[in-house]
Amino acid sequence: METYKGKFYKLIHPRPTIILGTICPNGRVNLMPASWNMPASEEPPTIAVSVYRETYTYECLKYHGEATINVPGVDMLDLTYMLGSCSGRDVDKVKEFNVELIESEKIKPPGIKNSLAIYEGRVIGTLPAGECDIFLFEILNVKVKEGVADEYGLKIGDNVNLLLHGSGRVFYLVYYKKYFAKKK
């Protein structure tokens, strides 16, 4: 083994990318991609997302403690990158990028229409982590695009693919081959 000289987190990338949809103090919807996310609990169903404290999304989450967690597919690659390339403080991202939104059932922030899946969550806690806070979202409702999932999750293939963020504008795709571990 040798000492790695790059940024430590690059060795655990690429990571699944989500887009947080929030309501901000000015009443606008803000959208921010985040690849530092993970399931955190089954009971209650909880997703954790790390958010840098200087972002507008951080301010929006502190203002209105709900968000949609949108799972973009490959058809949303350019949009995902563009949403992360500017601040909602300066730009109305929904208007600027013509994002089509759909109403949520359990929370105020809307979801992004063409997402593979949309989680509706409310903040149930935060954990400080360096320059970020990890937001814990209790998931109140889950919507999935018709035909893209089964009991194992997303049906990764030609028409369905998960965006994995590498670094900057680099994304990876999952190539489909399902493996089942042997039983004892």
UniProtKB/TrEMBL annotation:
Obligatory cofactor(s): FMN
Residue ranges of the TM segments: none
The Flavin reductase like domain, residue ranges: 11-154
Gene3D superfamilies: Electron Transport, Fmn-binding Protein, Chain A
Superkingdom classification of source: Archaea
MF-aspect GO terms: FMN binding
InterPro entries: Flavin_Rdtase-like_dom, Flavoredoxin, Split_barrel_FMN-bd
Record's keyword terms, sorted: Flavoprotein
Family note: Belongs to the flavoredoxin family.
PANTHER family found in the cross-reference section: FLAVOREDOXIN, FLAVOREDOXIN-RELATED-RELATED
Record-given protein name: Flavin reductase-like domain
